[in-house]
Backbone:
């Protein structure tokens, strides 16, 4: 009886560790072979723009260069315009990126530009001058033993390109 109870405990432990290793993905157990995914902001959609609140949807593309699928369980981000912090937040979006594949996902963004009105109006006085933007964040990967992948994107927008004629 004692032997049988001991065997059940050992089998249970082996099954638990097998389950945990399967959930965590191959990047956990072979850290030298894991390559960070490439995360890019590909589009910003305006959902609603009112005086006190603006809503956007950020569209990201994540490319997985690894030979195994990549589980994503969230994103933390900050968005800057000429060093003014416009928004920050987090998304608990979760999905799996196939091995050597890509996935496009959306993240809602809500901000209040009212507190930045003077500097923004000053920037828009010259609509053909570029305005710098910076997006920083962390993509959380894996289930139990995941790691965070840092992202940082810089660029410029020209406000005059968005003014209809």
Residues:
């Amino acid at each position: 009886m004692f032997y049988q109870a001991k065997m059940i405990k050992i089998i249970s432990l082996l099954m638990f560790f097998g389950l945990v290793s399967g959930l965590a993905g191959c990047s956990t157990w072979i850290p030298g072979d894991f390559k960070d995914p490439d995360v890019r902001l590909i589009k910003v959609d305006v959902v609603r723009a009112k005086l006190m609140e603006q809503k956007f949807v950020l569209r990201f593309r994540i490319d997985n260069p690894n030979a195994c699928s990549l589980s994503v369980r969230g994103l933390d981000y900050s968005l800057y315009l000429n060093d003014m912090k416009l928004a920050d937040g987090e998304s608990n979006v979760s999905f799996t990126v196939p091995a050597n594949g890509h996935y496009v996902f959306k993240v809602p963004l809500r901000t209040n530009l009212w507190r930045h009105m003077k500097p923004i109006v000053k920037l828009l006085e010259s609509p053909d001058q570029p305005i710098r933007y910076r997006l920083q964040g962390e993509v959380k990967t894996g289930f139990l033993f995941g790691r965070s992948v840092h992202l940082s994107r810089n660029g410029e927008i020209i406000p005059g390109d968005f003014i209809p004629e």
User: Anything to note?
Assistant: The CA atoms of residues 121 and 127 lie 10 Å apart. Residues 2-24 form the longest helix (23 residues). The first strand starts at residue 38 and ends at 49.
